[in-house]
Structures are given as C-alpha cells and as structure tokens.
Amino acid sequence: MRLLLGALLCTSLCIPSLAQHTPKAEIFGGFSYLNYEARHTMPTGIVIAGICLSLPCAGPNISSVETIPRMGLYGWNGAVTGNFTRWFGLTLDFSGAYSNASKQDTTVVTITNAGLLSNSVTTVTQPVTISEPKIHYFLFGPQFSFSAGKARVFGRSLIGASYRSTTESTTYADPFSASPTTSSNSAYLFAYGFGGGVNYPLRKKISWRIAADYLTGTETAQHHLRVSTGPVWRLGN
Known about the structure:
mainly beta; 8-stranded antiparallel β-barrel; 8% helix; Porin; 11 strands
C-alpha cells in the first residue's frame, strides 16, 4: 500500500515537471540554405514543314525536354509554434531564399526545313540561362515533438503557398525566328512539404534549432531541400 501511494505521489509530481518543459509557444528565426531545382522546359526539335516556293514554309512544330539544373540559395527562415499538449502543436512557417548567381544548361536542337524539291537539316546546340532566382514560402501544419534528454526533437507536415521568381535568357537556334530573348517569370504556386529537427536548450528561455525540410509544389521547380538553423525563444514554460 505504501509502495502504491509512493508511486502515485511520484507520478503526480513528475507530470507537472514534464509539462513545464513543454513551452506554450516557440518563436524561431534564423539562417537557411535552399538546394533549389531550377526546372526548365527547352525545345529539342523544330520542324518547318510544308510545300512552298521559298523558305521558310510553315510555322514550327516543337518538341521539348525538361532540364533540371540545381542552384544553392541563401536566406532566412522563421516559424511560430503553439503547443497544445506535450507532443502536439501547430506551426506557421515562412521563409525566403535568394541568389545573384546564374546557371546555364543546353539542349541539342534539330531544324528541318521542308522545301518543294529537297529538305535541309541543321543541328545546333541551344543554351538557356536561369539567373537571380528567389522563392518565398508561407506554410502551416501540425508539429509533433518529444524529449530526448535535454533536447527536444520534432517532426512536421506543412502545406501552403510559394512565390517563385526567376530570370531566363534563351538563345534560339532557329535561324528563321528569332533573336535571343530574356524574360522574367514569377508565379504564386501551391506548396507542401515535411521535415523536422531538434531544439537544444542554451538557457532557460532560449534553445538552438537545427532543422531540415523537403519542399515541393505544383508546376516547375518541384524538389527542394531546405536546411535552417538559429535561436528559438520559448514562451510559457
């Protein structure tokens, strides 16, 4: 009986102790690195077909291939998490990543000009340059946490939107069309991802976070890896 009462007393004392190590809210702000997939669709063949007396004849029929250069972007990451229990909370995550660099990729383009008497075929290499990418994420989702010694480990699932902007320069291989073009492309896209990390306490109200997230979404540029680190302010513990 005394043993049972002792166990109950120990449990009643331990539960508040565990609860006080779970902050009601956590505010994170720090540095991030984004391994960015700059996916781009490039033409692989241009066929100018038809029967006429002079070239070019009819307008192009274009096939395409996707090129996937990757770039390293640097920026910031912030998050606010409200914890409802020792293991469950909701987090709002937002970030921005930028680069002044450029990445060039190429594809082989075959141009077939179909004339009245004969065809001429030209094969050239066409480059595209992707430069100055920037991307912002606005995400929300559940976060699950547990204690591992002094550290607090968490995993999360995120959903929301991203804003992507890049500058693309293309040198056209078709001698009958066109001069080089430069365009700025931007779009708001549906985004989602998952990841996790660890918070290690430095002082009573401050921890240090290391986290990694896989981020993806719709349209182009779909597979990114973000690594973040910085301080976490714990409120209400």
